[in-house]
Design a protein that fits this description.
Largest sheet: 3 strands, antiparallel
Distance between the termini: 39 Å
Number of strands: 6
Order of helices and strands: EHEEEHEEHH
Structural class: alpha+beta
Number of helices: 4
Radius of gyration: 19 Å
Strand content: 15-25%
Shape: globular
Helix content: 40-55%
């Protein structure tokens, strides 16, 4: 079975919980594609599986080896996102055992989005402030797309900042 599941980087727990429920209902994640949004499952016996998303484009072989030694299996590696799984019987295991690791993951994503935003910012401002030929359909369409992109970046950066702040307070 294939499923399209749209998730956002500041809400990894939502996807992790969804995958865990699917495994409990007998649908084990087999593979992912299209940036971990197309999920392919295979029918198996219901099981307890813990999933963890990590944004880390610079994993070292040593770090991967340590995670695998702890019986975590990498399901997917896409654009710096790693999706790990581990089957368990009694107590649910966690890849991130402390808040600092979660903060570091969110900061890596925050700074990538900030970099992308800053490189796009001049284009967005130029496009939105360019009012010559405003009535041309293509100019209006491009302006609308950039306005949504600008708002999305602001929203995403704000959500990540709040997420980091929440973990810092705990």
């Amino acid at each position: 079975m294939k499923e399209f599941y749209l998730w956002l980087g500041w809400n990894c727990e939502r996807l992790e919980q969804h995958l865990e429920k699917m495994a409990q209902n007998g649908w084990r994640l087999k593979s992912t594609s299209f940036g971990i949004t197309v999920l392919e499952y295979e029918r198996q016996e219901p099981s307890k599986v813990s999933y963890c998303l990590d944004f880390n484009p610079k994993y070292t072989e040593d770090a991967i080896s340590i995670i695998k030694d702890d019986q975590w299996h990498a399901i997917s590696n896409s654009s710096g996102w790693w999706l790990w799984e581990k089957e368990y019987k009694t107590e649910k295991p966690k890849l991130f055992t402390d808040k600092r690791s979660l903060i570091d993951r969110d900061k890596r994503l925050f700074f990538l989005l900030l970099l992308l935003f800053l490189t796009q910012f001049p284009l967005i401002i130029t496009t939105l402030s360019n009012n010559y030929n405003l009535f041309r359909t293509s100019q209006i369409l491009i302006s609308i797309i950039y306005a949504f992109l600008f708002l999305f970046y602001i929203y995403a950066l704000t959500r990540l900042y709040l997420h980091i702040h929440k973990y810092s307070k705990q």
